[in-house]
Amino acid sequence: MNDNSLPGLLAGPFTFLQPDCGEFERLFGAGLSALPHPQRIFLEDEEATPFEGFPVLNSAGAQDLRQALEEFIYAEEELQVVAVRRQRFERDRHSEAWQLYRRLLRRAVENATLSSYGRRYPSIFWLAHSLDVARLLKETPRRVVRLDLEVGRSEGRRIKYRVFDKFLDRAQAASQETLRSLGPHDHEAAQDFTNTLLRQLAENVLIFTEDHVSSDLRELSAYLSGYLDLDAGDFLRRFQELHLWHEQLLVSEPELAVLTQSVLGLEEGHDPRIALFRRGYSRYLASRPDYDPLSLLSSPQIEHWEKLLDQLKRFEILRALRRQILPVSIEKDRQIYLPNPGDQPLKGRREIVFSPSTRPLDFASPWVIDPVVHRHGLIYDVTDFSRVVSQMRRTGRDAQEHGYRMMFRFQRQVNLLARQYKLKLEKFLGDGAFFTSRHPLLLVACAVRLQRTYISFLKQGLPFDCGLRMGLNSSHYRLMPIHTPGESDLPRYDFFGHGVVELSRLTSGKTEEKLEAIQNLMISRGYPAETVHRFFAPLVGPDSRKPQAAGQQSSGLGGGISHDSPPPFSAVLNGNGMLVNEGIVATADLVAQLDDALGSRLLYQTRLRDLPYVMVPIDDKKRLLFVGIRKLGVARLKGLDDLTVYELVDGGSLGTLNLRPLRRRRLIAALDELTQQELGR
Known about the structure:
The chain is α+β, with helices and mostly antiparallel strands. The chain folds into 5 domains: 26-57 and 333-361, no CATH class; 61-211; 230-323, no CATH class; 372-508, Alpha-Beta Plaits; 547-679, no CATH class. Helix content is 47%, strand content 17%. The chain contains 22 helices and 18 strands. The radius of gyration is 34 Å and the shape is elongated. It starts with 5 loop residues before the first helix and ends with a helix.
C-alpha cells in the first residue's frame, strides 16, 4: 500500500472496512478525488510529527455557526412534535433560526470555495460541519421525549430522520445557491468538490446522524426502525445470533476458516469472524443447508444487511477523516488542541501545543487560511552567471558541459546544506535559489556555510568564479496556492509579495532602472561606452565593482575603504545609497530577530579592513561559528522604502582574530555603539 494514498493516511481501527485502495475506489468511484488528504502537523518544538490531520480554528465565527445550527435543529424538532400533535405552530422563531443559520452557512461555503484552489476546503468544511450535525441529531429522540413523552415514545426515532431530511434539503439548497452566485469560471474545481462530497454525504444518512457505530450495531437501533422502518430489536437479535453461530461454525469446521481467509483476502493474523463484514459472505452462509432463517437473519434481512454494509464502510472512511479534524484554540498566542481521551498516539496528554507555523482553517474568515506568513528568507545569486555562460559557449562543448556539471554539483551541495539547517527551498532561480527558515540563527549559519561551499568549489575549478551574493531578511510573505489537476494531492505554495522583492533587491542592488536604460540605449546607438559611463557617473555613483575611496562622502555608515577594488565577499554602499553586494547583506528586521535569538550571549569586537565588526558566536554542529556584522547604512533600492542594511562576514575567514569582549550583550545596541564610535573617529 502506498503510504501517501488516502488509505495509508487514515488512522483506524476499522470494523467494517478493508482499508485498501481497491475498496476505496469501489465505494466512492470518481468521488474519491473529493476526499481531502490529511497533512502533517508539527508540535511546538517542530521536531515531532506524531500525527496527520486538519487543524480547524475554534473561532468566534465557527462558534456562531454551531450555535445557529443548534437553534435551527431545536426549532425543527419542535415543529415536528407540533405537527404530530396536529396543533398550530408559531413559525417566526423557526424562520428566524433558519435565516440566521442559512446566512452563516452560505458565508462558510463561499469562503471555503473561493479559498480552495485545489486544497479541498469545501470537503473539509462539510466533514467538520457534519460532525456538529451528527452530535445534535444523535440526541434528537431524547429531546423529543422531553418535549412530549407520548410523542417521543411513539415517533421520536422517526422525527429524528424527518429533521435530518429537512436539514439536508435546506442545507443543499443554500449551498447550491451560494455556488451559483459565485459563477462557473474561476472556481469550477472547488464547486465540483463541493457538489461531489455533498452528494456522497447525502447518500450516506449515517454520517449526518451518527458519530460512531460498533460491531454489534447497537447504535443503529434508531436508524433501523426510524429510517428503514424495520423491527430494530428483531434485526439486532438475529444479527447477534448470526455472529455466535458463525463463531461455532469456524470452530467445528477449521477448513472453513482457512478457506475464508484465502478467498476473502484476509491478512494473516486477522480474525476470520470479520468475514461477516465482507460483501456476499452473509449470502453464502444463508445458502448453507444448516443455516436457520427462523433464528438467524431472514432472506429480506440479509439483503438489508448487504446494502447497509456498504453504507457502514463509507461511514467508516468519512468518520476516519472526520476524526482527523482537530479543533484548535488560541490561548496566549499558543495554538492548543485538546485531544479526546482515546486519541492515539496522544493518549494521556491533556493538551497538545502546535507549532506557531501551523495555520488552522477558519471557515468564518474570507481567506480560510491567512495567506500572510512570517519567515526568515535567504536568496543567493551567482554573480555574472549569464556572461560566464556566454564565455563557456565560445570555448567549446567540453568546457560548457564541465561547467554545468560543476554547477549541478554545487547546487546539490547547497540543497544538502539547506536540509541540514532546516531551510526549505521555495523557488529555484536558475543561478540561485530562495529558501525560508523559522530560525534566524540557523539561517545565518547556513549562509556562512554556503559561502564556504562556494569557495571550496572555486578551488575545484568551478568556472562561475565572479562571486556569490546573498540577501537575508525577516519579513511577511504571501502564499499563493498552486494546483494542477492530476498532480500530487500535497499542497504546493508559491511565495510572492514584499519579502521576495526585498530579497531580490538585496542581491541585485537594483535601484532605479531609468538611467540604466538610457545608458544602454545610447550605447546601442553607437556612443562609446566609456564616454557614456563617465557622463552618467555623477548620477549613478562609482562603478558597482569599485566602491568609493577612503574620505569620499557616502550615505553608508563606515562604508569607505581604502582598496582600489572591494575585497572578496564584501558589501558597501556608494555615495548615492546604491548597494554593492558581493557578499552577505541582511535587513534590520533580520538582525533584530537575530538579536532576540542570541539573548544576552557574550559578543565580541574586531576590526577588518580598518572597519569594526561585532562578532557573534553561533553554536554550529557542536562547533563555534563566528559571524561578523556591521551596519552599512540606508540603502535606496528600487520599489522599496529606504532600508537599513547590514553586512555579514564569515569570522572563520578572518584568520587569527583579535577578539575583544563587548560591554554590551545585546546585538543591536552593540552595533549602534560601534557605528557611533566609527562616525566620531
